[in-house]
Amino acid sequence: MSSSAVAPFVAPDAIGDLAAATASDSALRRFLHGLPGVDQVGAEARAAGLATRSIKKDAKRWALDMIVAMTDLTTLEGADTPGKVRAMSAKAVQPEPGDPTCPSVAAVCVYPDLVAVAKRAVAGSSVAVASVATAFPSGRASLEVKLADVASAVDAGADEVDMVIDRGAFLAGRYSVVLEEIRAVKQACGRAHLKVILETGELATLDNVRRASWLAMAGGADFIKTSTGKAAQSATPPVTLVMLEAVRDFAEATGTVVGVKVAGGIRTSKEAVRYLVLVHETAGVEWLRPDRFRFGASSLLNDVLMQRAFQRTGRYHSADRVTLD
Amino acid sequence: MAVTTQVPDLVTPTWDYAPAPEARTLATIEASYDLFIGGDFVAPIDGRRFTTVDPSTGEPLAEVAEAGAADVDKAVRAARRAFIRWSKLPGAERGKYLFRIARLLQERSRELAVLESIDNGKPIRETRDVDLPLVAAHFFHHAGWADKLAWAGYGPDPQPLGVAGQIIPWNFPLLMLAWKIAPALACGNTVVLKPAETTPLTALAFADICRQAELPAGVVNIVTGAGETGRALVEHPGVDKVAFTGSTEVGRSIQRALAGTGKRLTLELGGKAANVIFDDAPVDQAIEGIVNGIFFNQGHVCCAGSRLLVQESVHDAVVARLKRRLRTLRLGDPLDKNTDIGAINSAEQLDRITALVDAGQAEGAVMWQPECRLPERGWWHAPTVFTGVAQSHRIAREEIFGPVVSVLTFRTPSEAVAKANNTPYGLSAGVWTEKGSRILWMAQRLRAGVVWANTFNRFDPASPFGGYKESGFGREGGRHGLAAYLRTGADA
């Protein structure tokens, strides 16, 4: 058992002893189903309550810069080309031309075949290159193919790998299959950071989100991520709330810190600031750093830059003054 | 718009929310207020006035008329006169007035929320998001009943009672007004309402809304004042029904005064609700429920979950999580949109809370408060948790009516029920478990007017609210609430 200040709520000692909890299929099932339930109505009410926080002035300026620094600027289209990736990478390094006070984004996120292009484009900057892998977005391929996908990204120099879990196996209750796959991918990542995408829109219930979060963390995730952005429902505040509770509880139980990435459908500064409030008042201010919380987004950045300029000049620019990439 | 070139520090782990105050100027506060009698604002006959203050600063806000017995008499007579026509109006016509009032309340809700926060000390987040939406909802709900009373289950032709004398407390000034006035008017009664002496301003703003809605003169009368005014209203022979929300002590004296008079009475009194946390509770939501149960409205809630009954096997985990959560509560300026805990309504109430907190420590319970700076002016009390509380401690038996929760433990469901019911009160209770059958088992055995399952302090005009035992009798809201304002069956 860990000696953390906040004792875990779940009965099994397994929280402090993940090895035992994940030793067999039945132990893993018992452990995941022994996690405290999530009352959906209550979780939604809490998320909605935190959304009423009013973030103004210095607090807002801080938030907008932090959102930029936490952004994984993303392009995941069939039509992606080296030119598109280079343009986006330039934007990632210097989001606001002519304003050196504007931070770079955290990373650019691309498909494995464009990692090398992205890597060259951000060379010499603080911007990392993240690559989706493991038969993104559906994850419907053999483990062999998934690991090859990961290897191609890592070999091309990816600093971070965003894998998808096998939702089919998860929903069928084959938790060990999911866990082993995460472990295998983690190993294939080598020094690259692993973000595990739960695709919460397909898991449907918040109980499942909590279980999948613990499963991913037990498998060695450095980050747990809400969604691919390709499913009907992407990141939502209640889902993020539950994931933030999971990383908070996991850190208290094991001492291992895991980050959270929200992805898909976050387009406005206002929404993004609300996510920061969720982080602040759930996991705590220690999670308000780019290595512990990320936004996976493409169009969000320009809205943040517009708001950022407004905070500095008192005027909104024309949309023509923010770059389209 | 402040223009700055300062670069935010993204490295130091701190994020302070900048002040986000709602504009105080949204509410207009007059220097002096008269009584609202017969559709007009009239000066009190003997000219006496008292001061209402801003509890967050102690600064005076306005002078308010103190109604004497003669003023109360005038108000009751105005209500009697108005009753003759009002009670004969078709229900649909009464409904129109109520709908109009409901819409005006919505239109003026920002102003009323600010005014309520200033006069009461409760955070603007609560007045804006809870009080005002519920106030309008109560008028809309009862507006809908006005022409359907014959189908409410009280016989084909239920009749109004006459003049209702209504006395409301300071914890939800406008919401309690709505709970009282909306059903009374819908059922064809006229009212004389006395708001609490520390929070009269929103009731007087409501008087203005009655005029705006062109409600016939005398249907609603507002007499401000303290205990003496209330006594004059209760004892007035022209009053047919008394509705009181407040302390059990005052409720008792009212019931004594009314004995043998034939006046109808409903009482909504104190409480010492048990919030029961089982070991299979959805723990993160249960923590929110505990916070919402006892720290909502600074604990100035008669149905507050002031006794936290936790299954012993999870006691430490729950208390640790609760403490962690309480560290994030923001106490301060009630008008700041990010404030969670506002001011205590009066010096008198703060003294009462402090006395019981002292008693808790003296009796051996362990007190804990999060680190929290209290403003220098005004009346404030930090959120407080007592652990190691026994059933015999005063803090487990007496209503504190402040942000103080007493944590007790139980071992089995039967023991939880026995302890929960072991109180002279019986207003509300909460049950937290993922097991549906246990919720039903508990709800059948808890002697409380409201049992919340996996939630707490949720209100809806369609749901009847009221107590068992020393928490009073009669229901407000829902179909049941109409019975308090109707002569039914053989009486009709």
Task: Characterise this structure.
The complex is a heterodimer of chains A (325) and B (492). Chain A has 325 residues and is α/β, with parallel strands linked by helices. Chain A is 47% helix and 11% strand. Chain A has a single domain, classed as Aldolase class I (TIM Barrel), CATH 3.20.20.70. Chain A has 14 helices and eight strands. Chain A has an eight-stranded parallel barrel, surrounded by seven helices. In chain A, helix 11 packs parallel to helix 12 (237-254). Chain B is α/β, with parallel strands linked by helices and 492 residues long. Chain B folds into two domains: 24-269 and 470-491, Aldehyde Dehydrogenase, Chain A, domain 1, CATH 3.40.605.10; 274-461, Aldehyde Dehydrogenase, Chain A, domain 2, CATH 3.40.309.10. Chain B is built from 15 helices and 20 strands. Chain B has helices at 69-86, 91-107, 109-120, 124-145, 173-186, 201-212, 227-235, 248-258, 283-294, 315-326, 347-362, 394-397, 413-421, 436-445, 478-482, and strands at 32-33, 35-37, 40-42, 49-53, 60-65, 159-160, 163-167, 190-194, 220-222, 241-245, 264-268, 274-277, 307-311, 366-368, 384-387, 404-410, 428-432, 450-453, 472-473, 486-487. In chain B, helix 1 packs across helix 7, helix 3 crosses helix 4 (124-145) and helix 9 (283-294) packs across helix 10 (315-326). Chain B is globular. Chain A binds chain B through residues 5-9, 11, 36-39, 41-43, 45-46, 52-63, 65-66, 69, 101, 103, 242, 245, 276, 280-281, 285-286, 288-289, 310-314, and chain B through 1-10, 13-20, 125, 129, 279-285, 288-289, 313-314, 316-318, 320-321, 324, 328, 337-338, 434, 454-455.
